Amino acid sequence: MTRGSEFFYYDNGVPKNRLGLDDAEALSLIERDLTFTRMLEIRNGTAPDTTRSGRFDLDHLRAIHQHTFQDIYEWAGTTRNQPMQIEGQQVRAAPLIHKDDGLTPVPFVPSNQVDRSLKATFLQLQQQDHLQGLSRSEFADRAARTFSEINNAHPFMEGNGRTQREFMLQLAEQAGHPLNFDVVSAERMSIVSLEARMGDLSGMGRLFQEISDSQRVAALDKAQGFLDQEQVNWQEMYIATATPGREYGGQVALSSPEVVVMRSDGDVIVAQTRDVDSEGRPPSGTVHFTATEYGPPAQDAEGQGRTRQIDLDL
């Protein structure tokens, strides 16, 4: 007998797990530590070879999930398309699911089509030589589409984000265009993922253009470090670097010789200080500028010269 998806959860909605924890916060804390260790094993080469096979197919994706979450879930590595084993019972995922993040509830690929959808994505990836031999910008555009398609398939009941990020990190490494997801806020990822499910890939494309550019990653990292010092939770913000060639206007919140943090059209924008002020003075108040291409930043030892302009309740 195969159980319905309600058997997947404890009565309070926490997914059933090997640890027997029905407290969401406790499970999250322990899961974070256990999965961190397993992901280190993948990256240092002590995990099974299947987790770094370089095949970039469904088996590769499933191997990453299985190794990462094996200590938490009996069904680790099993997609929504297949029955899961939980407490000795076969369990089927619900036909349709969506992310409960307070945004518009757009469903993911139906459960019975997950494997078919992923195989089509990975076949196209293979036909594109796994995105090798491309310029960084071309790679970023195609990687954004691949990531969006995997995310839209939402292969696993839990643990999709960490699994697909590791998959994409390996793909990018092999293609010669390293990615850095550490500077992507949770709010931004939620919004661009939803937009992609609704057919708009522009936000995801912009994100991949940034996280594949080491200089824009450095600008975001610097700005987020400043926000951490001010005890501002940037994970809850849509925070992005200014796009070269685009005009911006807004109120400066923080500035340093390297970067300016400002609110513009509802987003938190990180700009190069040299774009905002060309006379050597710390930018302040309302500013207007056109963003230029990113280059090596000015030196700013341990935040020296950083100025706070306004209340950072951004």
Automatic annotation (TrEMBL):
Source taxonomy: Bacteria, Thermotogati, Deinococcota, Deinococci, Deinococcales
Alphabetical list of SUPFAM superfamilies matching this protein: Fic-like
Single GO BP term: regulation of cell division
Uppermost EC category: transferase
Keyword annotations: ATP-binding, Nucleotide-binding, Nucleotidyltransferase, Transferase
Pfam families, A to Z: Fic
Annotated InterPro entries: Fido, Fido-like_dom_sf
Region feature Disordered, mapped onto this chain: 275-314
Entry EC no(s): 2.7.7.108
GO molecular function: AMPylase activity; ATP binding
Domain Fido per the UniProt entry, residue ranges: 56-210
Keyword Nucleotide-binding: yes
Catalysed reaction, written as an equation: L-threonyl-[protein] + ATP = 3-O-(5'-adenylyl)-L-threonyl-[protein] + diphosphate; L-tyrosyl-[protein] + ATP = O-(5'-adenylyl)-L-tyrosyl-[protein] + diphosphate
Biased composition range(s): Basic and acidic residues: 303-314
Protein name: protein adenylyltransferase
